[in-house]
Amino acid sequence: MLHAAINGRGGYASAQNPKEFADEIKNFLGDVIARSQTSASSAAVSSAVLRADSLGFFAGFRSEDWSGTLSGFSFDQGKQLWDAEEILRQTLPTDRKLITHNGSSGVDLEFASASSLSNLSAAQRDALNADPTLNATQDNLGHNRLAWLHGDNDAHATLRSRQGTDAGGNTVLRLLGDVINANPQFVGKTNYGFARLGGTEGSKYGTFRSTSTYQNRIDALYVPANDGILHAFDGETGKELFGYIPSELLLPSGSNTYARISELMKPNYNHKYFMDGTPRVQDAYIDKDGNGSAEWRTVLLGTMGKGGKTVFALDITEPGSFSPADDVLWEFQHPNLGYGVTDPQISRLDDGTWVAIFGNGYNGASGQSSLFVVDLETGNLVKELQTGAGSAANSNGLASATITSFPETDAITRYAYAGDLLGNLWRFDLTGGANGWDATKVFTAKSPAGNSQPITVAPRVALNPNNNDELVAAFGTGSFLRNGDEGDYDVQTLYAIKDNLNAFRLERDDLVQQTITRQEDVVVNRASGNGTNSFTVRETSSNQSTNQQGWYLDLAYNSNKQGERVISRATFPFGVNPDRVRFTTVIPDDDPCGSGRTGFIMDLKLTTGVPSETPVFDLNSDGTFNAGDIVGGYAPSGIQVGYGGENRTIATEDGDAEVVIPGLDPNKLSPGDPCEDGLCARSLDSSIGRQTWEQLR
Question: CA-to-CA distance for 23 and 16, rounded, in angstroms?
């Protein structure tokens, strides 16, 4: 379940050449893994395009004790700046700031003392005082458990020791939980463009961003970890600013009487997910204090992913002085909200309301897929848009949503797109009043055998570059989150669906078919004359569309079904040619958490699914894209990568190329030229015109 990536989170700026940059990242990660005996899982950078002050942040985990690592790295200086785990070891447990919600408001989780549980609800106090090894027994060690959460390894003899051994054989404390599926989020001073909104709301946005409070605030990194904590770190120093623990982790689950988070402290602890969802951060215009006057704030919308069923909102405008009572805005729970909720959206609707938008995840009470719209100020439900697809007997669930301002180009959300486990792609109309909102089934994905193909990632949505009156939604199908998924070898598919807001119940017969026409191992001479590069590459068909509503490409070559699937979002490469989309596929082994994954990066035209006319992968390591990257008379549209996880890209200064950092296989992280390992991909000189209104942070 490793999803290692370099994730752009800032404005467009300058960059060094892609080979040097990728080589720097790869060598650094290899060194981190060697020193910390960890597996790479996810990463972030402080800007979408590399610049002199760009920072990299790399998270990982150790499967032997399910601890985590987090490092800050300066690309300009070429060295590690900080190690969060080491800084936590140097921090007194009494100095750490942990926060939760007690059912009424945000409160401090105080360090161990006779009154340390007093801020919590009676149910939370009882649950923390329950022995997880005996369940029904009250041992009154709740304050000791809080001390353990703060990092006190001597909190009580019955609680799990977090001592470990580093690569040098030294005994050290492991004080950070594993980071597996969640992506760290860097929050600097992004301009989200809300000055284009009308009236006072728009005019106040520039004022908000120019205040000394905003300009001087800490650039922070938010890291969800499976110690149950959303950690906030100072991006420059690695110091922990605060940590947030959702209230449900301090309560029992099912028939148990002990707090869920107490599972972490069992001496025989086996891995569980607690905080595993990627948060969303964005500025929003809300009346936080309820005085009738809205103001601009920076809001974090958190999710628990596989770890729980709570969505929460924090005001992180001033992360260095976070106040539980003032800055924990709300928590939201609902019977139809399941596990797996991640990547929520923050939106402004056409009536001026700011809302949180998210799919209901999996295993909700109704069994249906549904979209939740929640008031961002209050946490009150505005509306649950149930699709009617699914039931308790045929359980369904909605993945993350993508929002769009289409047909306008302002910052107002009008529609949302999301897919579900039964293979349905839905368009949600959010225009006008909530009573008029509805869900329309745009498309149903089915395999060649007629089986439903699950959609478990948000679609990417862009304006059709050949027709400004319609959108194109690109996504792949596949699931790797349910028992039995690893043994599912049904054919999964890449799709791009055209929608002018009238598309309705389309099927694969309404689309043009593209196919994998060749898959082969190739050897290419390096341009330097020093050796060769070896790749597995793909050629795909160029079938022309005749007024079809999109295209599809089945992930099978010569009817050879390997269980290849898509469990990460498609991306739009930088370039003057907006007619491109890039998918990353996964070919799993028999163990969902195993290390035997492979996959392909597939780079195709967005509107037709045909390959690019020019090379998109630098096969001969010359840093350019030319005839030297053509093999067997064709430019590959697919290339195998070593691990198959989600990839991210960092653009060069002039836009001529991107460095693609695919899901990282820890066994392949060794010194060398990453472009020789197929990690450099072509771009075409500037950014694509997106319509999803999703800001890079």
Answer: 11
Beta bridge partners of 464: 467
The values of phi and psi at residue 201, to 5°, are -55, -50
Rounded Cα distance between 585 and 567, Å, is 7
665 falls within a domain? yes
Query: Which residue range is the domain that position 562 belongs to?
Result: 481-697
Question: How many domains, the chain?
Answer: 2
Q: What is the pTM of this model?
A: 0.89
Please, what is the end-to-end C-alpha distance for the chain in angstroms? 24
Please identify, among 277, 312, 336, the residue that sits at the C-terminal boundary of a domain: 336
Domain assignment present for 494: yes
- The rounded average pLDDT for each run of 10 residues, N- to C-terminus, in the chain (697 residues) is 23 35 55 52 56 74 88 81 96 97 96 85 96 88 96 96 89 93 91 94 97 96 97 97 98 95 95 94 95 96 96 98 97 97 96 98 96 98 98 95 95 97 98 97 97 97 95 96 84 98 96 97 91 93 94 93 90 77 83 61 96 89 85 93 54 52 36 35 29 26
Q: Which of 463, 549, 473 lies closest to 513, judged by CA?
A: 549
Cis before 324 (ω within 30): no
676 inside domain: yes
At 202, the amino acid letter reads G
Q: Which helix (H) or strand (E) holds 312?
A: strand 311-315
Element holding 34 (H helix, E strand):
helix 18-36
- Which of 566, 563, 478, 555 shows the shortest CA–CA distance to 516? 555
DSSP 433-461: -GGG-EEEEEEE-B-TTS-B--B-SPPEE
- Triad 518, 522, 527: Cα angle to 5°: 130
* Dihedral angle sign, alpha carbons of residues 311, 150, 133, 484: positive
Identify the CA nearest to 608 among candidates 576, 580, 636.
Answer: 580
Report the alpha-carbon distance of residue 369 to residue 360 in Å, rounded.
7
Cα dihedral sign, 679-681-687-689: negative
Range list of β-strands (E), 349-484: 354-359, 361-362, 368-375, 381-390, 397-398, 402-404, 415-419, 424-429, 438-444, 460-464, 467-476
Nearest in space to 218 (alpha carbons), one of 82, 140, 322, 366: 322
> Using the 8-state DSSP alphabet, how is residue 258 labeled?
S
Classify the phi-psi angles of 71: left when phi > 0, otherwise alpha if psi is within -120 to 50, otherwise beta: beta
* 429: its two tokens: 């109309």
Q: Tell whether 16 is covered by a domain.
A: no
Q: What is the enclosing helix (H) or strand (E) of 215?
A: helix 212-215
Scanning 37-162, the segments in alpha helix (DSSP H) are 84-89, 122-128, 142-149
Adjacent-strand bridge partners of 512: 551
